[in-house]
Amino acid sequence: MKARVHVMLKDGVLDPQGEAVRNALGHLGFEGVGAVRQGKVIELDLTGSDKAAAEAEVRAMCEKLLANTVIEKYTVEIV
Amino acid sequence: MKARVHVMLKDGVLDPQGEAVRNALGHLGFEGVGAVRQGKVIELDLTGSDKAAAEAEVRAMCEKLLANTVIEKYTVEIV
């Protein structure tokens, strides 16, 4: 089973990395680009076959290690 | 319109960041975690309403700036 975790900065938190990408795209001539946010995606190969248990475990991983929940939000997808 | 870009290291390319996450999860007592790959996700707000044109433009952004196509692969999703 595979899990995919998205970790993004929360909406109110300034994202200098995304801002840098937006500026660079502007310099390269790409127009019509508004806000840009950059985050992390983590793909995990999991053993076990219980989808609900896997999702709960991956959420625990996010809380403990993968995301800084003070400034980041995460979503878990089991695929 | 929003575009979401995933940039991941190509399959053969060593991913030390993912490997570090895997080790850390092991030390925290999470078992049953196989390979871990870490990548970037970039969310762009786009003006314009032509989906196909937007996807083509975002692909051009990936080729020029967002991904290093020597070692990285990308997927574009218009949402």
Automatic annotation (TrEMBL), chains A, B:
Which UniProt keywords are listed? ATP-binding, Cytoplasm, Ligase, Nucleotide-binding, Purine biosynthesis
Presence of the UniProt keyword ATP-binding in the record = yes
Q: Where in the cell is it found?
A: Cytoplasm
Looking up Pfam families in the UniProt record yields: PurS
Gene Ontology terms describing biological process? 'de novo' IMP biosynthetic process
Enzyme Commission numbers on file: 6.3.5.3
Question: What residue ranges are annotated as transmembrane?
Answer: none
Catalytic activity reads: N(2)-formyl-N(1)-(5-phospho-beta-D-ribosyl)glycinamide + L-glutamine + ATP + H2O = 2-formamido-N(1)-(5-O-phospho-beta-D-ribosyl)acetamidine + L-glutamate + ADP + phosphate + H(+)
GO cellular component terms, A-Z: cytoplasm
Q: What is the lineage of its organism?
A: Bacteria, Pseudomonadati, Pseudomonadota, Alphaproteobacteria, Rhodobacterales
InterPro entries in UniProt:
PurS, PurS-like_sf
Summarize the protein's role: Part of the phosphoribosylformylglycinamidine synthase complex involved in the purines biosynthetic pathway. Catalyzes the ATP-dependent conversion of formylglycinamide ribonucleotide (FGAR) and glutamine to yield formylglycinamidine ribonucleotide (FGAM) and glutamate. The FGAM synthase complex is composed of three subunits. PurQ produces an ammonia molecule by converting glutamine to glutamate. PurL transfers the ammonia molecule to FGAR to form FGAM in an ATP-dependent manner.
- GO terms for MF: ATP binding; phosphoribosylformylglycinamidine synthase activity
Note the subunit structure.
Part of the FGAM synthase complex composed of 1 PurL, 1 PurQ and 2 PurS subunits.
Question: Which organism is this entry from?
Answer: Paenirhodobacter populi
Write out the pathway annotation from the protein's UniProt entry: Purine metabolism; IMP biosynthesis via de novo pathway; 5-amino-1-(5-phospho-D-ribosyl)imidazole from N(2)-formyl-N(1)-(5-phospho-D-ribosyl)glycinamide: step 1/2
Descriptive protein name: Phosphoribosylformylglycinamidine synthase subunit PurS
According to the UniProt record, what class of enzyme is this?
ligase
Q: Which family does it belong to?
A: Belongs to the PurS family.
